[in-house]
Specification:
CATH class of the largest domain: Alpha Beta
Number of helices: 16
Number of domains: 3
Strand order of the largest sheet: 1-2-3-4-5
Number of strands: 18
CATH architecture of the largest domain: 3-Layer(aba) Sandwich
InterPro entries: WH_DNA-bd_sf
Largest sheet: 5 strands, antiparallel
Shape: elongated
């Protein structure tokens, strides 16, 4: 018979014919190696008058403490030692069982929510993944879910987030000026990923990553709102991206005071996404990531402001947004880990203009694999004759779609100036073309393009150092003029990259 009353979580009651014990303050769930409680013990009499009460804090797993309490109860409450000893043993067993029940409930509550799809939802998700022009339809749904503009960036980001389920996930960093929507784009696309598959971080201490459970981060999407607020964890993040695991050795003292060394290991792989305005500051992280430059054009401003007006006027179809999110989340849930083999990989060569070609080449191949992985319900399942491992193969259309999406990424990877400086240079070229000019002054550009003096000086310094512009002396008494050395250099670089990618496809088609 269970005599333990736990209705009041701060005062359990354990009652026998002769004794009533109150467990004041409930139980500690953190230290299972001890059972420390505060007891209020009283002897029950027929007259119901309380003769005496004994209060004592005790570890019920400590035999010496229990024996001292037994003797104290016998002396002060006039209870037989055998009776109080038996009662304490029974109480210990009841508390032990109840604590295990509480810890089991707590562990269940702490488990991440994982939705189980209905047969109808699963069927709809599979039908969607089997549809023609899958990437195009996915991009349309992303737009319907509330992502305004950013047509290429949003599908790129979605596929990068999807790659978290593969053995070699991709990573991305969103770059742009303050207030242009870097965090907004990342948060809106991440809403299409199930909650149980992502970890969102605003601020994290230097050692926090090492205290996750060993497999807690495996195949998760780690979202960092602002890299400036997570500088202390950038090193372990880089290791997690490259080595797919991090280990920290710490000194620990056991209960007896003996010092020993223990290893804290957290396993990957993970997909990492972050936002920043400072491209050059995070170069080591940028090298491991796709760099997505936010659209800062006037056309994008118009699209966003129009969306904001419709939202304020209550003219948006919110139900359509919810349905689009649910479909894409369910699609993510039914994608299963499977090996991808690219039989055309040996014919894929990047243009020589790309910086850090080894890492960029790896990203290019992984991105093609991510597209194939996303199309797994359209691919024939094959099996390795020696190991029996199941796999799917990349098809030429996957490479074509990857090339169309990755051209801008490769273009940025091939550039010798930062993205912000490149945007300024292209705006400058457009201004000169419209006004039929070949030279310009700082004062003119500050006024016409509305650029701060300090920002313009920084851009000019970089452009002069890299040989994109040159100084020209003005007439006597006038300020320096500047001239763009090669106004077509960016278009030439783009043509070179497109030609290299087309040559790869030509080589594949010849051997296919």
């Amino acid at each position: 018979m269970n005599n333990l009353d736990t209705q009041n979580p701060n005062n359990y009651i354990y009652k026998t014919k002769a004794i009533e014990l109150d467990i004041l303050g409930g139980l500690q769930l953190s230290k299972l190696e001890s059972l420390r409680v505060t007891l209020s013990i009283e002897k029950l009499t027929k007259t119901k008058a309380v003769l005496n009460i004994l209060r004592q804090s005790i570890d019920l797993y400590n035999d010496n403490q229990v024996e001292k309490l037994v003797r104290k109860c016998a002396e002060r409450l006039e209870i037989g030692t055998s009776v109080i000893r038996k009662t304490l043993q029974e109480l210990t067993k009841e508390l032990e069982n109840y604590r295990f029940l509480l810890t089991s409930k707590q562990a269940e509550l702490q488990k991440p929510f994982s939705k189980t799809l209905t047969a109808k939802e699963e069927k709809e998700a599979i039908q969607f993944l089997q549809s023609n022009n899958l990437l195009e339809k996915t991009n349309e749904l992303i737009g319907k879910s509330g992502v305004i503009g950013e047509v290429d960036n949003r599908i790129l980001m979605y596929l990068i987030f999807t790659s978290r389920k593969t053995k070699n996930p991709l990573h991305c960093i969103s770059l742009g000026s303050s207030g242009v929507g870097k965090t907004y784009l990342q948060s809106k696309v991440s809403e299409l990923i199930p909650e149980e598959d992502k970890v969102e971080i605003t601020v994290l201490s230097a050692n926090a990553f090492y205290y996750f459970n060993r497999t807690e981060l495996q195949h998760k999407l780690i979202l960092i709102e602002d890299l400036d607020g997570a500088e202390s964890v950038l090193y372990p993040l880089r290791e997690l991206q490259s080595k797919k695991r991090i280990t920290k050795t710490v000194v620990h003292k056991d209960r007896k005071g003996n010092t020993k060394t223990i290893h804290l290991t957290v396993e990957g792989p993970v997909s990492v996404a972050g936002c920043t305005t400072q491209e050059s500051v995070y170069e080591d992280n940028s090298n491991r990531s796709f760099l997505l430059y936010i659209d800062e054009s006037a056309e994008q401003d118009i699209r966003i402001m129009q969306y904001q007006r419709f939202l304020s006027a209550g003219k948006l179809n919110e139900q359509e947004q919810i349905e689009a999110k649910e479909i894409l989340q369910n699609v993510q849930r039914i994608l299963k880990p499977i090996k991808v083999i690219n039989p055309y990989a040996e014919y894929l060569e990047l243009p020589q203009s790309v910086f850090k070609p080894r890492r960029t080449n790896s990203h290019y191949l992984q991105f093609i694999e991510a597209i194939t992985f996303y199309k797994q319900y359209q691919r024939e399942r094959k099996y390795d004759e020696q190991t029996g491992e199941e796999y799917i193969e990349t098809e030429i259309e996957d490479i074509q779609e990857a090339n169309e999406l990755i051209t801008v990424v490769l273009l940025r990877k091939s550039d010798t100036i930062t993205g912000a400086c490149r945007n300024h240079l292209e705006s400058l070229k457009n201004y000169l073309k419209v006004n039929n000019q070949t030279t310009f002054t700082n004062a003119e550009i500050r006024r016409r393009l509305r650029v701060k003096q300090t920002t313009l000086q920084r851009y000019n310094k970089q452009l002069l150092e890299e040989g994109y512009i040159k100084k020209i002396k003005g007439k006597k008494g006038q300020t320096y003029h500047f001239e763009i050395i090669n106004i077509n250099e960016y278009q030439e670089l783009k043509t070179q990259i497109n030609k290299a990618l087309q040559n790869c496809l030509a080589s594949i088609n010849l051997t296919a």
